[in-house]
Amino acid sequence: MSRFAKVVAVCALATNTPEAKTVCIDVAQSAERLGVDPLLAMAIAYKETHFRPRPGDGGKSRGVLQVSPYYHCPNRQAKGCDMLEAGIRYMRALSHATVLTTPKKIHKIKPSERVAYHVACHYKGGHTCGSASKASAYRVVRTMRKMRKAVE
Question: Which of 48, 106, 121, 133 is the most buried (most CB within 10 A)?
């Protein structure tokens, strides 16, 4: 079984509806296509919305990855913007930016997980990685660990 087939199998385990499974697979495929670790994108999507395709928190963020159109879409508008692709492109930009600025040690985070932790932290908190964002990033990394074990 290929690695991507195993990732799709994780979608079946992590979701409880066919619609959520489809969204999970879409997240994994888009991440793979755009050069982002599918498990990172899936873990962020799971923590943000539990793969619900139309979540609504009353805020300005949209889509399964809770993307802010103002910051991540053309013309700063949701209309005509693929929220999934915009969110994954943002993850890719964060991963390239944080490779150079990641500290050598982070409590409870393995060295191989440092970039994922920082991507998740800044994905949640923007420019600052405050205490709430750090807690969220740690939960994303723990979810990634569980998904990675299911894939292996």
Answer: 121
